[in-house]
Specification:
The complex is a heterodimer of chains A (114) and B (113). Chain A has no helices and eleven strands. Chain A is mostly beta strands and 114 residues long. With 113 residues, chain B is mainly beta. Chain B is globular and about 45 Å long. Helices cover 0% and strands 57% of the residues of chain B. In chain B, strand 6 and strand 7 form a beta hairpin. In chain B, 35% of the residues are buried. The chains are: A mainly beta (114), B mainly beta (113). At the A-B interface, strand 4, strand 5, strand 9 and strand 10 of A face strand 4, strand 5, strand 9 and strand 10 of B.
Chain lengths: 114, 113
């Protein structure tokens, strides 16, 4: 399957600071990437769709000014959690559609806000 | 409103037996269904998918069945192995929305030796 990487794999930050998470497609060009969030023992919830060279599309209830998404190249999308608070602590996962019908996921980033 | 539901949070199966994981959906605008396997603190791993125009897809030990009239799909794992123990998510792709997936809540499968 396609290889998708994320960095960092784990980050702890203080409340009020911003954190950037990178998602890279390593062996193909991804015009579209997706960002998901998973709280413990819960489902993966789509946050936004990231399109290369254009603004991201956010799901209902997701604050676009708080979760900044940039997809400046075909291999990199970034998610910045601005002014993070403890309730933003979660597992963030990116994915990308490959050959239309399958979606491959990165390993995820665990964010802990203290 | 949960559009994709996995009503069994957990399932325990003996090694060598069949594991059957179920998933129900409510939206008719899904064109593809996918199953993922996930370990804690890792990203989901793609297992198998099925188009909404099919009723069965098989890949090795994994078979997915789709019953469109009942809006139900299931993943069969035969024979089950201890290494299959993980959380399994079904996901539905929304038609014509660039690949957007809606996930179920997941079922934790435990395969006992």
């Amino acid at each position: 399957g396609a290889v998708v990487s994320q960095h960092p794999s784990w980050v702890i930050c203080k409340s009020g600071t911003s954190v950037k998470i990178e998602c890279r497609s390593l062996d193909f060009q991804a015009t579209t990437m997706f960002w998901y969030r998973q709280f413990p023992k819960q489902s993966l919830m789509l946050m936004a769709t990231s399109n290369e060279g254009s603004k991201a599309t956010y799901e209902q209830g997701v604050e676009k000014d708080k979760f900044l998404i940039n997809h400046a190249s075909l291999t990199l999308s970034t998610l910045t959690v601005t002014s993070a608070h403890p309730e933003d602590s979660s597992f963030y996962i990116c994915s990308t559609a490959v050959w239309g019908n399958e979606q491959y996921f990165g390993p995820g980033t665990r964010l802990t806000v203290t | 409103d949960q559009q994709v539901k996995q009503n069994s949070p957990s399932l325990s199966v003996q090694e060598g037996r069949i594991s059957i994981l179920n998933c129900d959906y409510t939206n008719s605008m899904f064109d593809y269904f996918l199953w993922y396997k996930k370990y804690p603190a890792e990203g989901p791993t793609f297992l198998i998918s099925i188009s909404s125009i099919k009723d069965k897809n098989e890949d090795g030990r994994f078979t997915v069945f789709l019953n469109k009239s009942a809006k139900h799909l299931s993943l069969h794992i035969v024979p089950s192995q201890p290494g299959d123990s993980a959380v399994y998510f079904c996901a539905a792709r929304v038609y014509n929305q660039g690949g957007k997936l809606i996930f179920g809540q997941g079922t934790e499968l435990s395969v006992k030796p």
